[in-house]
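I am still getting used to backbone structure tokens and would like to learn alongside you. Please make up or recall a protein chain and show it to me in full. Would you write everything just below, so we can both look at the same thing?
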Amino acid sequence: MSRRQQKVTEEMAHRASEYMARELGVRALVTVTRAEMSTDLKRVVLFLSVLPESKEMEVLKFAKRERSNFRAHLTEHSKIRPVPFVDFIIDEGEKNRRRVEELIRKKNE
């Protein structure tokens, strides 16, 4: 990953976290766990972790519905040009990691 890709990816994850915290109308803890940027910097996929898990679909629908507003927010509040197309998905790897930790904790009790 080039230095520019890394900087843009980090900026996108940071801005998405801020945006979700401010705009999300759901009582849930949403974390941007990682971001994957295309090599041409035109597309970014942001991976979300949601607690409680029962709110995942609601948060994902909100995030997908707000994509154009988030891009407008990026245009106003960041120096990223061109602003990449944004997609959001639930981070299944993070969910699996939490489940493994829970199983280990239960086994050790």
Remarks:
- The mean pLDDT is 89.
- The domain at 3-108 is CATH 3.30.300.20 (GMP Synthetase; Chain A, domain 3).
